[in-house]
Design goal:
Elements (H helix, E strand, L loop, with lengths): L16 H12 L8 H26 L7 H18 L6 H25 L7
Helix pairs in contact: 1-2, 1-4, 2-3, 2-4, 3-4
């Protein structure tokens, strides 16, 4: 029988910021190819999942800072924006879906930036 230490539990693992950024770049890179409808659906689900993981992590990390801390306030504003993005309805058609996914991708990238900033810019993975 194997035992799991606290550091090995999913709750204790840091965010995979590299993977999150790679997923976001798939839609935001200057030379990004437009996804097919099926690819877009998959990317949108991945980005939503990344947001659902990142939001509580950034929020709890920000909570460790004083209430008047500027990076804390910026991170919490980003969390609020990301939550709002999760609640938006997608328009009809591929262009509307791509625009929605790009907004999610930008929110993922911003949360990754705040996560790294709050944790001192140390690499995580």
């Amino acid at each position: 029988m194997t035992t799991t230490t606290e550091a090995e539990t999913p709750e204790a693992r840091p965010l995979d910021v590299g993977l999150m950024r790679t997923t976001a770049r798939r839609l935001l890179a200057e030379d990004a190819e437009l996804p097919t409808f099926d690819e877009l659906e998959t990317l949108t689900l991945l980005l939503r999942g990344h947001l659902m993981l990142a939001i509580p992590e950034v929020e709890s990390t920000a909570a460790e800072f004083p209430e008047d801390d500027v990076p804390r306030a910026c991170a919490l504003a980003c969390v609020k924006e990301a939550r709002m993005r999760l609640g938006l309805e997608v328009g009809h058609g591929l262009p509307a879906g791509i625009a929605h996914a790009q907004r999610l991708a930008r929110a993922v990238g911003s949360l990754c930036d705040h996560y790294d900033n709050l944790r001192g810019g140390r690499p995580h993975a």
